[in-house]
Amino acid sequence: MPKSRVCFSMILSLTTCVCQAQVFHLEQVADTAAMLVLTTDTMRSEWKIDYPVYRFQQCDIDGDGTREAVVGVVKPTRFDRSIARRVFIFKNFRGWIRPMWMGSSLGHELIDFRCTGGRVRAALRNKKGDCAVGDYAWDKFGLSFVEWIERDITQQRALDLLNDISEKDKE
Are the beta carbons of 152 and 130 closer than 8 angstroms? Predict the structure, then answer.
């Protein structure tokens, strides 16, 4: 076989091995527990989430070309003992679910979030009770604040801004 065909054949086989379809989905196990499931062409991986889940989204949060699972849970953390909404991010690592970040806080009380354009857009409430919507981006180990979308707004306005994203994503 000529050398050019061998090289082409090797490149083709490497390309087909790397490009697997992947799908994250959530299966409800109980009122306060869910199973995050990743299925690829050849594998199924599961990660039990022992907390109530209030939001499940997928987006390419770290810019590597594959979508991560972004899961909103209600739980206390080691650094914040109050039961509150948190954001967990999971990735596909060679067909297995692995946590990227199990966030304790975004700086203020988290009301809700949506993924948009590779970022997490969060509705937050400060200690005075004022609400805001801000964007957070992946920064090597966790989410970092990028910019405010709107500040000093009502909770309803903040949720409307998040729901506007959801409607645009459906189109």
Answer: yes
User: CA–CA separation, 166 vs 141, rounded Å?
Assistant: 26
Query: How far apart (Å, rounded) are the C-alpha atoms in residues 57 and 68?
Result: 8
Q: How far apart are CA 28 and CA 96, in angstroms?
A: 19
Taking residue 3's Cβ as centre, other Cβ atoms within 10 Å add up to 7
Query: Can you tell me the distance from the alpha carbon of 43 to that of 136, in angstroms, rounded to the nearest whole number?
Result: 31
| E strands present in the chain | 22-30, 33-40, 44-49, 53-59, 68-75, 84-93, 96-102, 109-116, 119-125, 131-138, 143-153
pTM of the model: 0.83
Q: What is the pLDDT of residues 151-163, one digit of tens each?
A: 999 999 999 999 9
* Cβ atoms 145, 138 nearer than 8 A: no
**Over the stretch 100-142, which tens digit does the pLDDT of each residue have?**
999 878 989 999 999 999 999 999 999 999 999 999 999 988 9
- Say which amino acid occupies 143: L
